[in-house]
TrEMBL record:
Highest taxon of source: Archaea
Transmembrane segments: none
A GO molecular function held by the record: catalytic activity
Protein name: Enoyl-CoA hydratase
Organism: Haloferax elongans ATCC BAA-1513
Entry similarity comment: Belongs to the enoyl-CoA hydratase/isomerase family.
Pfam family, one: ECH_1
């Protein structure tokens, strides 16, 4: 379930499945995309309810997928929507960001963590990987060496290490205050700055279009090979 609340110059988008650590089903991804596309505020704060930011894809849904390639492409579209939004999108990472949850955070313009934030790409342990654009965005943000380390090991980093790696830009107690401070700036300037800085990566993004397709195909192949392990992990 995705909750949306507009408060002046700020739209707060909440992934609201705390009992499932805000894991995302296909319908949740579609609703999240709509919430971002429908924003007419200068800043959007993306957060999770309860004790997690987002645990990534809902494993019940992943295990039962009829078309895993389409699911991967849906996640990619949501991440692209976040990245391409005219609003500045701030990820409020409070608690766990795993797999697809970290990938959606990578698509945000600003990532801030609370002291209890943890981030990781543990899909490799289940025979999966970051198919929502993670293999493209992660090395851009932290560099190829750190991206390989995080992706191949599946290890989880805490807020301090995430800051050192550049996964987040700061550690704060109140991520909303960061989003509000950004929204206090000139709105036209925010749009222009985001557009100009994002334009620097636009040519690279176009070149990466084929890589996104390859990600979706590879996800489908790995899903077929490891679906039993994925299903079993739902009980862990």
């Amino acid at each position: 379930m995705i909750q949306t609340a507009d408060d002046g110059d700020l739209r707060v988008v909440t992934i609201d499945r705390p009992g499932q650590r805000n894991a995302l089903r296909p319908t949740d991804l579609e609703d999240l995309q709509a919430a971002i596309e429908g924003a007419d505020t200068p800043v959007v704060l993306l957060r999770g309810a309860g004790s997690a930011f987002c645990a990534g894809a809902d494993l019940d849904s992943v295990a039962d997928l009829d078309d895993p390639e389409a699911f991967a492409k849906l996640g990619q579209r949501v991440a692209d929507t976040i990245e391409g939004s005219e609003s500045v999108v701030v990820a409020a990472i409070d608690g766990a960001a795993r797999g697809g949850g970290m990938e959606l955070a990578l698509a945000c313009d600003v990532r801030v963590a609370t002291p209890r934030a943890t981030l990781g790409e543990p899909g490799v342990r289940l025979g999966l990987f970051g198919a929502w654009g993670g293999t493209v965005r992660l090395p851009r943000i932290v560099g190829e060496g750190h991206a390989l380390d995080l992706s191949l090991s599946g290890r989880v980093v805490n807020a301090e290490e995430a800051l050192q790696l550049g996964l987040v830009s700061r550690i704060v107690d109140d991520p909303r205050a960061v989003a509000e401070s950004i929204a206090d700036n000139d709105h036209q300037s925010l749009r222009i700055i985001k557009s100009r800085l994002r334009d620097r990566g636009r040519d690279a993004a176009q070149r990466d279009a084929d890589r996104f397709d390859a990600e979706a195909e590879a996800f489908a192949t790995l899903h077929e090979a490891n679906v039993d392990d994925i299903a079993a992990s739902r009980d862990d």
